[in-house]
């Protein structure tokens, strides 16, 4: 689950992270009041959507000269003008795709004078099973670009869960970021705070880009050389949300795909993609293999959907309805290897769903495993236009051929 920047910062403040003052706003009037509540003389108006690259984004409805989902303002009136242009309009960034996302809320934040921009993130290193800090002196840039152009500028530090962030860990991170004096002191405390937040709230990713060193500005004497979290992006492990009702309350359904929302109601693992072949599979590994072989035959998967190992007929029916609700789907591949999941249950669910919503696109079903013959018999006797496949290779070839012809 993802949250907005302002929510991430509100959370990090609770763990002691240095964050500027700021207020969310869902209307122009709220934006004005937020700006008036901040000291100035510099404000930052930030579009709040679940996507990166906001600063370089553009609004579909605005002229090219009014681009940018993150803007500086030097007066309350300028804050209001930015809010008027942003709210209700569609922001397109490198991560939203060409369709973009509508901006429904803003974050009005106190500005900062920046001396240096750094990159810092925490994630789980799958190879070691430990939380890792990934840091770079090249903040403010896409980390993928840094990794490609200057990989030597990226440093990783795995943290021992038995000790947490030690003095040695924190100093190593500060060294990698070339920090000294007050910024080094701040980094040692910040590393511990972020690690505590990450583990306590079951985060899957915490990214601060940029983490800044404040400039030597005479109007901010107390902040000279100090660190500040200028942006924050946080994702949580969905399987652990039952432990965090406060985090669940932060969920913004307007930022999520309607089909993914519906899937979550039925405990289905569903991710919408850009292709035209809908997939219903049991098991994440098999689902990935199914998408790969569809692409091998020249097709494009429209989704990742794992119905799980013990899905009921009702769950399968719901999954099928979600797939057919996507207008981009021009064909459907059901690929089930029955272990715990029984093939006859899958077949019953598919038949029930087709009879309920109709079948307007080619449907190929490959069943193998527990009760496979019962499952095939249910499909054969249904009277529906369903194509059976002998194996995954055969299934992928049949569905891609059918979609190309259709």
TrEMBL record:
<dbReference type="InterPro" id="IPR013650">
    <property type="entry name" value="ATP-grasp_succ-CoA_synth-type"/>
</dbReference>
<dbReference type="InterPro" id="IPR005811">
    <property type="entry name" value="SUCC_ACL_C"/>
</dbReference>
<feature type="binding site">
    <location>
        <begin position="339"/>
        <end position="341"/>
    </location>
    <ligand>
        <name>substrate</name>
    </ligand>
</feature>
<dbReference type="GO" id="GO:0004776">
    <property type="term" value="F:succinate-CoA ligase (GDP-forming) activity"/>
</dbReference>
<keyword id="KW-0816">Tricarboxylic acid cycle</keyword>
<dbReference type="InterPro" id="IPR013815">
    <property type="entry name" value="ATP_grasp_subdomain_1"/>
</dbReference>
<feature type="binding site">
    <location>
        <position position="231"/>
    </location>
    <ligand>
        <name>Mg(2+)</name>
    </ligand>
</feature>
<dbReference type="GO" id="GO:0005829">
    <property type="term" value="C:cytosol"/>
</dbReference>
<feature type="binding site">
    <location>
        <position position="117"/>
    </location>
    <ligand>
        <name>ATP</name>
    </ligand>
</feature>
<feature type="binding site">
    <location>
        <position position="112"/>
    </location>
    <ligand>
        <name>ATP</name>
    </ligand>
</feature>
<comment type="pathway">
    <text>One-carbon metabolism; formaldehyde assimilation via serine pathway.</text>
</comment>
<dbReference type="GO" id="GO:0006104">
    <property type="term" value="P:succinyl-CoA metabolic process"/>
</dbReference>
<comment type="subunit">
    <text>Heterotetramer of two alpha and two beta subunits.</text>
</comment>
<feature type="binding site">
    <location>
        <position position="282"/>
    </location>
    <ligand>
        <name>substrate</name>
    </ligand>
</feature>
<dbReference type="InterPro" id="IPR016102">
    <property type="entry name" value="Succinyl-CoA_synth-like"/>
</dbReference>
<keyword id="KW-0547">Nucleotide-binding</keyword>
<keyword id="KW-0460">Magnesium</keyword>
<dbReference type="GO" id="GO:0050074">
    <property type="term" value="F:malate-CoA ligase activity"/>
</dbReference>
<feature type="binding site">
    <location>
        <position position="209"/>
    </location>
    <ligand>
        <name>Mg(2+)</name>
    </ligand>
</feature>
<dbReference type="GO" id="GO:0004775">
    <property type="term" value="F:succinate-CoA ligase (ADP-forming) activity"/>
</dbReference>
<comment type="similarity">
    <text>Belongs to the succinate/malate CoA ligase beta subunit family.</text>
</comment>
<dbReference type="GO" id="GO:0005524">
    <property type="term" value="F:ATP binding"/>
</dbReference>
<keyword id="KW-0479">Metal-binding</keyword>
<dbReference type="InterPro" id="IPR017866">
    <property type="entry name" value="Succ-CoA_synthase_bsu_CS"/>
</dbReference>
<comment type="pathway">
    <text>Carbohydrate metabolism; tricarboxylic acid cycle; succinate from succinyl-CoA (ligase route): step 1/1.</text>
</comment>
<feature type="binding site">
    <location>
        <position position="109"/>
    </location>
    <ligand>
        <name>ATP</name>
    </ligand>
</feature>
<keyword id="KW-0436">Ligase</keyword>
<dbReference type="Pfam" id="PF00549">
    <property type="entry name" value="Ligase_CoA"/>
</dbReference>
<comment type="function">
    <text>Succinyl-CoA synthetase functions in the citric acid cycle (TCA), coupling the hydrolysis of succinyl-CoA to the synthesis of either ATP or GTP and thus represents the only step of substrate-level phosphorylation in the TCA. The beta subunit provides nucleotide specificity of the enzyme and binds the substrate succinate, while the binding sites for coenzyme A and phosphate are found in the alpha subunit.</text>
</comment>
<dbReference type="GO" id="GO:0006099">
    <property type="term" value="P:tricarboxylic acid cycle"/>
</dbReference>
<protein>
    <recommendedName>
        <fullName>Succinate--CoA ligase [ADP-forming] subunit beta</fullName>
        <ecNumber>6.2.1.5</ecNumber>
    </recommendedName>
</protein>
<dbReference type="GO" id="GO:0000287">
    <property type="term" value="F:magnesium ion binding"/>
</dbReference>
<dbReference type="GO" id="GO:0042709">
    <property type="term" value="C:succinate-CoA ligase complex"/>
</dbReference>
<keyword id="KW-0067">ATP-binding</keyword>
<dbReference type="InterPro" id="IPR005809">
    <property type="entry name" value="Succ_CoA_ligase-like_bsu"/>
</dbReference>
<dbReference type="InterPro" id="IPR011761">
    <property type="entry name" value="ATP-grasp"/>
</dbReference>
<feature type="domain" description="ATP-grasp">
    <location>
        <begin position="9"/>
        <end position="235"/>
    </location>
</feature>
<feature type="binding site">
    <location>
        <begin position="53"/>
        <end position="55"/>
    </location>
    <ligand>
        <name>ATP</name>
    </ligand>
</feature>
<feature type="binding site">
    <location>
        <position position="46"/>
    </location>
    <ligand>
        <name>ATP</name>
    </ligand>
</feature>
<dbReference type="Pfam" id="PF08442">
    <property type="entry name" value="ATP-grasp_2"/>
</dbReference>
């Amino acid at each position: 689950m993802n949250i907005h920047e302002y929510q991430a910062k509100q959370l990090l403040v609770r763990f002691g992270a240095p964050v500027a003052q700021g207020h969310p706003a869902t209307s122009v009037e709220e934006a004005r009041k937020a700006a008036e509540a901040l000291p100035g003389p510099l404000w930052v108006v930030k579009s709040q959507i679940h996507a990166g690259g906001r600063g370089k984004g553009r609004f579909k409805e605005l002229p090219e000269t009014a681009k940018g989902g993150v803007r500086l303002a030097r007066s309350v009136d300028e804050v209001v003008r930015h809010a008027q242009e942003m709210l209700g309009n569609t922001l397109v960034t490198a991560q939203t795709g060409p369709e973009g996302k509508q901006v429904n809320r803003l974050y009005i934040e106190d500005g900062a004078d920046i001396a240096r921009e750094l990159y810092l993130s925490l994630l789980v290193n799958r190879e070691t099973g430990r939380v890792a800090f990934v840091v770079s002196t090249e903040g403010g840039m896409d980390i993928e670009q840094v990794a490609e152009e200057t990989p030597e500028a990226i440093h990783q530090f795995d943290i021992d869960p038995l000790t947490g962030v030690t003095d040695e860990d924190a100093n190593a991170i500060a060294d990698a970021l070339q920090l000294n004096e007050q910024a080094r002191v701040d980094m040692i405390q910040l590393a511990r705070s972020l690690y505590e937040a990450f583990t306590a709230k079951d985060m899957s990713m915490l990214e601060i880009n940029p983490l800044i060193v404040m400039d030597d500005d005479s109007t901010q004497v107390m902040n000279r050389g100090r660190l500040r979290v200028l942006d924050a992006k946080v994702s949580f492990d969905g399987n652990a949300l039952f432990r965090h009702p406060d985090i669940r309350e932060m969920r913004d359904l307007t930022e999520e795909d309607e089909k993914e929302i519906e899937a979550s109601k039925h405990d289905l693992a569903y991710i919408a993609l850009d292709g035209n072949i809908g997939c219903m599979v049991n098991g994440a590994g098999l689902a990935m293999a199914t998408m790969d072989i569809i692409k091998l035959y020249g097709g494009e998967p429209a989704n990742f959907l794992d119905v799980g190992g013990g899905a009921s007929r009702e769950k399968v029916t719901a999954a099928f309805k979600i797939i057919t609700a996507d207008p981009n789907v021009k064909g459907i591949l059901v690929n089930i290897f029955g272990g715990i999941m029984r093939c006859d249950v899958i077949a019953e669910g598919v038949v029930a769903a087709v009879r309920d919503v109709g079948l307007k696109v080619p449907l190929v079903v490959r069943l193998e495993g527990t009760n496979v013959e019962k499952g095939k018999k249910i499909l054969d006797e249904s009277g529906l236009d369903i194509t059976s496949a002998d194996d995954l290779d055969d299934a992928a070839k049949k569905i891609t051929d059918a979609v190309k012809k259709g």
